[in-house]
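FAQ: What does the model actually see?

It sees only this:
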Amino acid sequence: MEPQSLAILMVITLFALILAGVPVAFSIVAAGVGFGLMGMGFDLFHLIPARIFGVITNYTLLAVPLFVFMGVMLEKSRLAEKMLDVMGHLAGRIPGGMAISIIVVGVLMGASTGIVGATVVTLSMIALPTLLRRNYSHSVACGTICASGTLGQILPPSLVLILLADITGEAIGPLFAAALIPGLLLATLYVLYILYLAWKSPEKVPPIDLEERQSYSRKDLWIQFFKSVAPPFILIFAVLGSILGGVAAPTEAASMGALGALLLVFLSKRLSLDVLKGTLRETLKITGMIMFVLIAAQIFGLSFRGLDGDYLIEDLFSIIPGGEWGAIFFMMLLLLVLGFFLEWIEISYIVLPLVLPIFHALGVDMVWLAILVALNLQTSFLTPPFGWSLFFLKGVAPPEIKTIEIYKGVLPFIGMQVSVIGLVMLFPEIALWLPKAIGWS
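And it is asked to produce this:
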């Protein structure tokens, strides 16, 4: 059989295994090794060790477990729960105040964890019962939580951005800087949407009852704000500021962030052996999963290229009309559809290495393209019927929350995310201005 025919069969087999319920990492390895042996013989195994060694010795990827530890520590210590309670009561007198506080906490958690699943589940368990108890519309509550939880995909130090830096060959600092304004623009649109609902349909986003608000004095709330909300914000600002200001490399900043999170939890008297053990266990699980997929993707990519699959990709893009813009639209559509079925990490390490050489040849700015990809992957987390954030929320939601209500709730937020993608495509300076201002490009 022709090598390129084997390459096509390898991709089909990969999706068949995934749809059959085989874990993604095992599916990638099985397809890569099986078809690699058929097309390349045992020469494949002479090439694999160097690829694996390249992954596990990559200094950039050392930031992954450190940032994961930082975020999981803040989550396990229940600081996020306290942040939401304080922010909710500070904004509780206005309609939609609690939803806005969820978006703000989503920004803080996204900037500290970079892990969508953890953020969505945490916000769902903390905020959803509170919103339902306060008579929020089911769809608005679900949409706000799902959308706020996915902000971790784009806000630095997002794990997506760290891995995209590795895939594109760009430095992490410029990607973090480029993602900051689009991420904050997205969060601002979310807040404006809630304020619009508060004006148009206040019954969907009612304020906190006067009696409940009066149970906390303003003085006590501000004291709690400086105790519970300000310290995580200062930690995130210090970590990102040290990277963007060129004071520390991302890996060193991540180590300081991990230490800072540990110290923060200790000073808040929330550190215990159970919290530490739970944080270390979760960090190990998440990091192990990421590294396993990274190694599996190296084997798959090696086999695909050995079977001349990269020429197939070139031929495919050559027949797409529209030149550079046609290729970008096609890739964005492909990533969005794949996001229905695959996790972002599999998409990043299987699909992107195959298509990025096309854009390198076209002279496309890789930092700008990486931000478009990150925004796209974020959108796929929300898109029915297979958006992962929807599944995360449904898994912990009370029985009265119907699936259709979750779908209806996320639609306006999907519209806002598509709008931001369109703006960044039409006006690349939204993403590229800050890296240029810092002097990185």
